[in-house]
UniProtKB/TrEMBL annotation:
This is IclR family transcriptional regulator. Residues 4-66 form the HTH iclR-type domain. Coiled coil: none annotated. It comes from Yinghuangia aomiensis. Pfam families: HTH_IclR, IclR_C. Keywords: DNA-binding, Transcription, Transcription regulation. Residues 67-252 form the IclR-ED domain.
Amino acid sequence: MSSVPAAAQVLAILRYLAGQAAPVHAAAISRDVGLPRSTTYHLLDTLARAGFVVHLPEERRYALGVSAFELGSGYSRQAPFQRLARVPLARLVDRTGHNAHLAVPHGREVLYVIEERAPGRAPLVTDVGVRLPAHLTASGQAMLARLPTAQVRALFPDATAFVQRTDAGGPRSLTALRTRLVEVRRRGYATENGEVTLGFSSVATAVTDHADHPVAGVAVTFETGSLDPRQYERLAEEVARTARELTRRMGGHVAEPASSG
């Protein structure tokens, strides 16, 4: 399907403004977005009249307007991502027979937004609304592994960032965390064994958006030692399958797994 040029240009300007730390000149927008100056001014004027952009005349700069904020608020109210994810997560539970959950990044923590419990399985600490340290959870590690090194360093600047929950421990330094994230990238999924709750393990894969940025982690939790290696790998494949489906639904690029044949 072909794109509408004007719509694509408007979206490019809004995305550009959203990524800036402060209001910017129209000339900078024109240059960085790659639009003629006349087109840039025309689109900025249209966006300003609709409230999506505000012009700061004394500074001769532009910033996002209140209508852009209302769009973000509407997204939060409607919770479309949770709606997109609930059925695939329920199917994951049906296929595996284990509890599954969806977490989103929240600083150096993860916030659980969906929990689907399998029949007969015990409730977990990962209830909706719970926050846990990202470096301890499989979901958090799966998402951290998709971030640039500098961003991970900013989230975990010193030893005080590395809290522990159980005797099973977890990464206690940036070096240890980086080593684990290298393994997550190599393997294609993250694992956690008793670092959140003793006696329980998890496997998780990240969900990414159109910019290949991690927006969530899909995980399944099970009793430690209850799976043999083949069952473990099969479970990891099912989690990755669900993460790929959610990535598609979010407009992200999906690299299909290589055929074993």
